[in-house]
Amino acid sequence: MTTAQEKAGGGRVRYTYRLRVSSPAAALLEAEWARCRWLWNECCARSKKAYAKGEKCGPARLDKMLTEARTRMAWLRAGSSVPQQQLVRDFATSRAKALKDIKGRLPMRQRAGMPKYKKKHRAGPSLNYTQRGFRIKDGRLHLAGGIVVTVVWSRELPEPPSSVRVYRDSIGHWYGSFVVATTTKHLPETGAVIGIDWGVKETATTTSDDHDLPHVEHGKKAAKRLAHYQRMMARRRAPRGKAQSKGYRWAQKQAARVHKKVARQRQDTARKWAKRLVRDHDALAVEDFRPKFLAKSTMARKAADAAIGATKTALVEMGRKHGRAVHLVHPAHTTMDCARCGARTKHALPLSERTYACTTCGAVSPRDKNSARVMLVRAGLNPAGADRVRADGPLVRSRREPGIPRL
Fold first, then answer.
1. Using one digit for the tens of pLDDT, what is the confidence trace for 127-146?
2. Residue 336 and which of 65, 90, 209, 407 are 20 to 30 A apart at CA?
């Protein structure tokens, strides 16, 4: 069993706030990003050259390159060294991960690719500042280089932040993401437990009928508006090599707004549901389901709209935040096992068969409800009245702390 603390590598959490950026501050941030983007592309060029010659290109060599470049170029030296150093470290980490995957001979679909060049009109600004590169004074964020922005403090930071990432999203809004130490806000104990099974017809089926999460279909409801702006973009697209028109950029921004709204709706639904579950239960047995493979199936669009991955992440984060035990159960054979007697069917059930009938003990129940009860059995959280048996299956991982979730 792997504890969450071992997997987290230190308890930290991100708090993201909207930034009000004036025109002069925006110009300074974009100029800072232009320097960092040039530096990233220079690192890519040096890395490719070193890889072709079989030489090393680690953090020490990249730091030396940055020092030489700042000494030689006044334009680069005019910017703050903090985001530039952080960018070099991020590049070195990304490259090391890619080389590790290559050395481990992982399948191509599982590898983290080598860092690529950042194009001017595609890569959005993203600047990382450590403690020596920023400070909060009178409610405003002061960044190295004389950049001052106003933060919309929608809530207070529980602890002084150790770093901040300033970035701009696809619709032009600026955000500041502060990293702070995790704090646990314990809720009153209820003595109740719950099992959760993920699905497509319903996003989540639980052992409690009152806590099931139906498929809200936010993406399906916004599909008509999104298709309207995408057709507009297709009509106004300029030939290859020419700059896009103002009308195209306007339609592109409207499409990005629709995508952003749907993402926020999914996130809001997931958090509210997760908070309700965590408030009413002391322990949660959650199917450790990875829906990535559904992207290649006929259920790809509906599975993406269900946002199973985002909902699962929100549930684990909420459990950590309030000190609830979250047990991640391996999904193998959860649809084939009987929650009452632990017997396993000889053949996998087709998706069209929605009722589980055990041939050993005669138990009959909805398929997803039976799977949710199997989660409790495998996690050792057998509900009252169930036989004290544990179905054979892979080990269960207990998680109390995530890595760095975005709240």
1. 999 999 999 999 999 999 99
2. 209
